[in-house]
Amino acid sequence: MPALKPGARVAIVAPASGAPVAADDAVQWLLDRGYEPVPMPATRMRMEPPYDFLGGPDEARLSDLHEAFRAPDIGAIWCLQGGFGSWRLLAGLDYALIAANPKPFIGYSDITALHLALQARAGFVTFHGPMLAQDLMAGKAEPTESLAFAMVSGGVPAGAWIVPPPEFAPRVLSPGRATGRLIGGNLALISALMGTPYEIDTQDAVLFLEDVNEHPARLDRMLAQLRAAGKLEGVRAVLLGSFTRLGLGMPDAAAQSLIEPLLMANLRELNVPVLSAWPSGHGDPNLMLPLGARVTLDTARGGLLLEQAVVR
């Protein structure tokens, strides 16, 4: 997949919920960093109730994605924000078109639906990473921005370690070292796509999970669903990202620590390495992860070893 070049054109898309005001700010944010922003039409649209959770009609959001992938002068596709509605696009995507035009595609949260579909049907690395409105323009802590640009521009080569800063070091819940294909994202979206043609493939995977606004009981239920569906049996290692706004009346860091025994109750019998509180997802910072890439999770190092080049 071609790396993002300095000064390249970057498509801004809103495959889920919209943020028309933020789209204008995103244009300036990318200009300030030396890129040529291309806001796609649906980023400026606003739907009426009951579809006001969507950034434009499905047809417009699909067209934006297709045009951004098709255009040879677009160097990357960056999601404006998450929200709701990406799953509505999956059946209408032209996967042959997308597979023939690989380029960095960046987002998370509801965008997990697109990551899973592209992993299943297009077969190239996509990037679970900070979005323009929700993270980058909000000034999330470093290395949120610097790692994102380094990874999509070739600054994180094969053999590099992805390790959070010491103040955001993950916790070891089960020690070890294992290699596999990095896959996953938002647990609620992974759960919602079970039983569909786009459900997650976890065989020989390093499984990454994160979530927001989910009570511990729902997290337990969704993990139990994955376990009952056999989706944990082939996992080589687990990377637990940020679990925030859990409704427990305490700071996010304390709440995540409190729920770790519940998470491990669903994972312990796997006997695989598990890292928790990895700073990716709906927290601060939000470190980019290359979904679909082969990585080694090493709990002693507290990080991921990138086993392959993700852009060239």
TrEMBL record:
GO terms for molecular function: carboxypeptidase activity; serine-type peptidase activity. Gene3D superfamilies: Class I glutamine amidotransferase-like (3.40.50.10740), LD-carboxypeptidase A C-terminal domain-like (3.50.30.60). GO terms for biological process: proteolysis. It comes from Bordetella genomosp. 1. The keyword Transcription regulation does not apply. Residues 179-297 form the LD-carboxypeptidase C-terminal domain. Belongs to the peptidase S66 family. The active site is at S109 (nucleophile), E210 (charge relay system), H282 (charge relay system). Keywords: Carboxypeptidase, Hydrolase, Protease, Serine protease. Residues 10-129 form the LD-carboxypeptidase N-terminal domain. This is LD-carboxypeptidase.
